[in-house]
Design brief:
Elements (H helix, E strand, L loop, with lengths): L7 E14 L2 E14 L3 E5 L6 H8 L7 E10 L2 E2 L5 H7 L4 E4 L13 H12 L4 H14 L16 H13 L5 E5 L7 H18 L2 E5 L3 H5 L4 E6 L2 E7 H6 L4 H8 L38 H5 L5 E3 L2 E3 L8
Parallel strand pairs: 3-8, 3-9, 6-7, 7-8
Antiparallel strand pairs: 1-2, 1-4, 4-5, 9-10, 10-12, 11-12
Helix pairs in contact: 3-4, 4-5
The protein binds adenosine-5'-diphosphate (ADP), iron/sulfur cluster and magnesium ion (MG).
């Protein structure tokens, strides 16, 4: 488990991100703040459309052109990377902060063999010979469960699951200090999923790798993460240690989310959350969860509940202590 006294590695403060659209501004992330320590494994969860990918993309200056960070800072080793120019960000990518994108399996360059893409990334960022780069790449390819004989295949010759695993290997090849993995295992079967998570864990033990693991699938986070962040409609609604979040969730949204995963609470009935997250062009006023919340009162519709922390367990709900 993470030692909270450990070095803070990445700190996000009051991030506010919007997308400009013809229909109006999408308020995709608001007041998003969190820290990642060295060697820590953090889970970011919430239903689809809650701002997880937006938050992740902003960490690497990868928002699409209609996306804008309106406010906030992203401190990496004490520097605000939002102030970095393209050259400085490119130097940071892969080597310091690496990312596996949502739907990454289509991101491999189709005209290059898989292993060549890894060798190129390594040689750009590190002073290694072709032979060393090849050996390291093959080693990683094996560790994501791919037969090294497939390393010289072109992306179109590989299955979707293999491409996804190769993207994970590519993201790890320069020994980054932090990996942001956005739904990295969603397309993979359970066995391969476990293998990838095990690889992240081994790297954490060996190299003090920090991981920001984003998934809507809470069961993936239960066994791997030190802490969990739950987002709803662009805001963080609850954060805490993994055991706290699973055994003593306090936000009504987190409670619903957890009870909708039968694999975690096996003796509970599946309880899907009725409705959908709101349109973020005109989100509900006050607590954005209020239209779906069984406990909403007038105050919830009028005032935004702040994220308040007690012993590292932070919750944004006006009625936190009432149930
Ligand atoms: N390029 C875009 N243009 C306009 N709106 C977007 C864009 N990308 C995402 N959004 C909106 O931003 C919100 C957050 O989306 P996203 O970060 O993808 O959520 P998640 O990863 O949690 O599913 C959603 O309302 C989504 O529709
Ligand atoms: S603030 Fe109100 S509407 Fe929001 S989760 Fe708490 S009780 Fe429900
Ligand atoms: Mg997403």
């Amino acid at each position: 488990m993470a030692d909270t006294k450990r070095e803070v590695f990445l700190e996000v403060k009051n991030l506010r991100i919007t997308y400009e659209t013809k229909q109006g501004k999408v308020k995709a992330a608001e007041n998003v703040s969190f820290r990642i320590h060295r060697g820590e494994f953090i889970g970011l969860s919430g239903e689809s459309g809650c701002g997880k990918t937006t938050t992740a993309l902003s960490l690497m200056h990868l928002l699409p052109k209609e996306g804008k960070v309106e406010e906030g800072v992203i401190l990496f080793k004490g520097e605000n990377i939002l102030d970095y120019d393209t050259k400085k960000v490119e130097a940071l990518r892969w080597r310091d902060i690496s990312m596996v994108f949502q739907g990454a399996m289509n991101a491999l360059n189709p005209v290059h063999k898989a292993i060549d893409q890894m060798i190129t990334a390594l040689r750009i960022h590190e002073d290694v010979t072709e032979q060393e780069a090849k050996e390291r790449s093959l080693e990683l390819i094996k560790s994501v469960g791919i037969d090294p004989a497939r390393a010289t295949s072109y992306p179109h010759e590989l299955s979707g699951g293999m491409k996804q695993r190769l993207m994970i290997a590519l993201a790890l090849v320069c020994h980054p200090s932090i990996i942001i993995a956005d739904e990295p295992t969603t397309a993979l079967d359970v066995m391969v999923q476990a293998q990838i998570l095990d690889l992240f864990n081994q790297l954490r033990d060996r190299t003090n790798l920090s991981v920001l693991l984003i998934t809507h699938d809470l069961s993936v986070l239960a066994e791997t993460c030190d802490r969990i962040i739950i987002m709803y409609a662009g805001r963080i609604v609850e954060t805490g240690r993994t055991d706290t979040i699973f055994t003593m969730p306090e936000h009504p949204y987190t409670k619903k989310l957890i009870s909708s995963f039968p694999s975690i609470l096996v003796d509970k009935e599946i309880d899907f959350i009725p409705g959908n997250p709101p349109d973020l062009i005109n989100p509900p006023s006050g607590c954005r969860f209020n239209p779906r919340c069984d406990f909403a009162v007038d105050r919830c519709r009028q005032e935004v509940p702040p994220l308040e922390c007690e012993n590292g367990h932070c919750v944004a709900c006006w009625r936190r202590h009432e149930f």
